[in-house]
Design brief:
alpha+beta; 9-stranded mixed beta sheet; globular; binds adenosine-5'-diphosphate; binds magnesium ion
Length: about 700
């Protein structure tokens, strides 16, 4: 049997394969493109395509595809085979540089928020050589960007790459000011922790809500949920372990650094964390991870739920976006250093993030907004919808001392004059891990915890990179050419702390008093729902940020606004329709049958014992009949609103009706249905219950 190092990355056209299969001229040209962002000569592309095809066909691949990430949030692929007819009636395998570099998928069915209508009917895909090609299902997948012919991005990768460039440009200006002449570029890295649920596939088949919406729309709470905290880090059940082993193997072959696996807080909930990589690669890998999780689960008779809130009353699933900035020479710019200079540089980058998160809270919140994630943010489990930052006690004390020009009362008594006095060595491991903070500093990286489990991480990182690029730009503008660099630096850091300390909060983010303080005293944004966040996206300040750093054009931003809201309206409408269907076809008939059964039983009893009072049966019949009435009323109201929503053309208006009316009516329908479930005999209930689902996998 092959060892893990031998099988790791065997399905990836990575550096090892390129080194072995490309001439040194072609290899060096590729390296220049990957690392330096230089343009690739078409002749080189031909040689690379040839080598890719040979390698892929030797591994059994028959097709190739440009693999891209349209605005649907999932990946897309259209397979073409390598075959070309040969004169003798057979086929040969062909793949040209042109086919590698550019593709023209029929793009008319992907969401574009009106972009393609305004510009070009067709879009094209363009090879992204910074993310390795790989083989999946006998198909050579080439990671690509997806644009319209007029150059507007129709995907999530293009703005992500642009945001990385923007950050690189500004960070390099800062690094030069600190005399780092050896650094050629700066990249952001991400390690996304992915949460998910596993449930028995046979049970899911009996639940239209899970099948169509990925979450339960009904279900009474089981007697045992997550109250005992006995699932988190608990022993992994054999069936789950078998799934995880299989999953790891598949991911490793694809060069994905799956590292940590454990049970999460809710029953049936688990987590997978990879070792971090460059943001662009991490994004591709996370998309692949989600896809393969679902595929492997099926093989094990399971369904992997990536929805943010599959079950009411137990924790939902998120994705922690661990993010840092590093130089190509391997220095993490968010690590406190050993020398005063390194520490001053660290503090400046730290301040850049603080300022960015405060200035662009709205954009960060908007970047994770979906109908699914609205259930999570603001509920009593995940970070609240209000963004704040956790820095830990020591770092907060350091910033405090700098702000007040006071001696730092930490481990060493030192006046905080940057570059003049030695800064204390910060605790590299923040001891206090605040699990409730939406944006926490964890020693050498920030952890942005608001992402939903099904979100593409591209969106959050686009905003984060660009917002930090803007802080760094303002810093570089202020510092370049200054005679007294140290003095100017000190002032800048102090000023940032003064202006932005309102975003720093080390306490309990679940607390209601915090939400009050955050919004009323500190003026922080509390954007509860997707429509609220999208309004913010269109604000002048936010538009200016994205356009001035050339990350998105105004049209691109507007198209994303539309797509997000369209998706919100469609998702909730599908849920409402599924509820209507389940209520009328499954739930009401089940209650009716049970009432009839109870009534018949009462009749029979009365026939046997004529003066029997039959209170139990009568009460049950009355209670369930009342619930039927309530359900019927709620059902009619919901039906009327769905019809109304469908008639509204303007997506903003439709999203408001969904937010303000439809969602409340769905809750109003669910309550009597869940109550009826608790009063109806199990044999009569027409679908697996929460108990069945949450404890189904042994
Ligand atoms: P936790 O205690 O939250 O599980 P870990 O240290 O295990 O934290 O890391 C969680 C994730 O953070 C992993 O995916 C890891 O690779 C990632 N990570 C660690 N260092 C960095 C970094 N410098 N940049 C980005 N991600 C990082
Ligand atoms: Mg974490």
């Amino acid at each position: 049997m092959k060892t893990l190092p031998e099988t790791f990355g065997t399905l990836v056209f990575d550096d090892r394969v390129m080194k072995a299969r490309l001439s040194s001229k072609v290899y060096n040209a590729m390296k220049n493109t990957i690392e330096g962002g230089h343009h690739l000569d078409p002749a080189i592309a031909d040689a690379v395509a040839q080598a890719m095809k040979d390698w892929a066909t030797e591994k059994g691949a028959t097709h190739f595809t440009h693999w891209f990430q349209p605005l649907t949030g999932i990946t897309a692929e259209k397979h073409d085979s390598f075959i070309a007819p040969s004169p003798d009636g057979g086929v040969i395998m062909e793949f040209s540089g042109k086919e590698l570099i550019k593709g023209e998928p029929d793009a008319s069915s992907f969401p574009s928020g009106g972009l393609r209508a305004t510009f070009e009917a067709r879009g094209y895909t363009a090879w992204d050589p910074t993310s390795y090609a790989f083989i999946k299902d006998k198909t050579l997948c080439i990671p690509t960007a997806f644009c319209s012919y007029s150059g507007e991005a129709l995907d999530k990768k293009t703005p992500l790459l642009r945001s990385m460039q923007a950050l690189n440009k500004q960070a390099m200006r800062i690094l030069r000011l600190f005399g780092n002449e050896d650094v050629a570029c700066v990249r952001t890295s991400v390690g996304p922790e992915q949460e998910y649920f596993l449930v028995d596939a046979a049970l899911v088949d009996k639940r239209p809500d899970l099948l169509f919406c990925g979450r339960t729309l009904f279900g009474a709470k089981p007697p045992k949920g997550q109250e005992l905290d006995d699932h988190y880090f608990g022993v992994i059940k054999p069936k789950v372990q078998a799934f995880m082993n299989d999953l790891n193997e598949e991911l490793w072959k694809l060069g994905i650094l799956a590292k940590t696996e454990h049970n999460e807080v809710a029953p049936a909930q688990h987590e997978l964390a990879p070792i971090f990589s460059t943001t662009n690669v991490a994004t591709d890998h996370n998309q692949l991870t989600m896809e393969i999780m679902q595929k492997v689960a099926k093989r094990h008779g399971l369904v992997c739920l990536l929805h943010e809130k599959p079950f009411a009353g137990v924790n939902g699933s998120g994705k922690h976006n661990n993010w840092s900035i590093a130089t190509n020479t391997g220095v993490n710019l968010l690590t406190p250093g050993d020398t005063p200079y390194e520490n001053a540089q660290f503090l400046l980058f730290l301040c850049a993030v603080i300022k960015a998160v405060d200035d662009y809270q709205g954009l960060l919140r908007a970047s994770v907004a979906t109908a699914g994630n609205d259930h999570r943010l603001g509920a009593n489990e995940a970070p609240p919808a209000v963004i704040s930052m956790f820095l830990g006690d020591e770092l907060t004390r350091v910033l405090d001392a700098i702000e007040k020009d006071e001696p730092y009362a930490g481990t060493e008594k030192t006046v905080m004059k940057l570059g003049v006095h030695v800064l204390p060595k910060f605790l590299r491991d923040t001891t206090d891990r605040n699990r409730t903070s939406p944006f926490a500093f964890t020693g050498n990286k920030f952890e942005f915890r608001m992402l939903g489990s099904s979100n593409s991480i591209a969106c959050a990182n686009i905003m984060l990179n660009t917002a930090v690029a803007e802080s760094l730009k303002q810093y570089a503008d202020a510092l370049e050419g200054k005679e007294n660099f140290e003095g100017a630096l000190h002032d800048l850091i102090r000023q940032t702390i003064k202006e932005h300390k309102r975003i720093i909060f080390n306490g309990n983010g679940y607390d209601d008093t915090w939400i009050k303080e955050a919004t009323e005293k500190r003026g922080l944004l509390n954007l509860r729902t997707t429509p609220d966040t999208q309004e913010v996206l269109l604000e002048k300040k936010n538009m200016e940020l994205l356009t001035s750093h050339k990350v998105m054009s105004e049209t691109e931003i507007r198209s994303r606004y539309e797509i997000t809201l369209e998706n919100y309206v469609k998702t909730v409408t599908i849920e409402a329709l599924t509820m209507i269907n389940m209520t009328s076809k499954l739930i009401l008939p089940a209650i009716e049958s049970y009432i009839t059964c109870v009534a018949e039983s009462l009749n029979q009893k009365k026939a046997a014992v004529p003066d029997l009072c039959g209170n139990y049966e009568k009460k049950k019949i009355v209670k369930l009949s009342e619930l039927e009435e309530q359900i019927d009323t709620a059902l009619s109201a919901l039906e009327a609103t769905v019809t109304q929503v469908k008639m509204i053309d303007d997506v903003t208006e439709a999203s408001h009706m969904v937010r303000d009316t439809l969602i409340g009516q769905m809750t109003a329908l669910r309550i009597p249905c869940d109550l009826a479930e608790t009063l109806t005999a199990k044999d009569f209930w027409p679908m697996p219950t929460y108990e069945d689902l949450l404890f189904s996998v042994k």
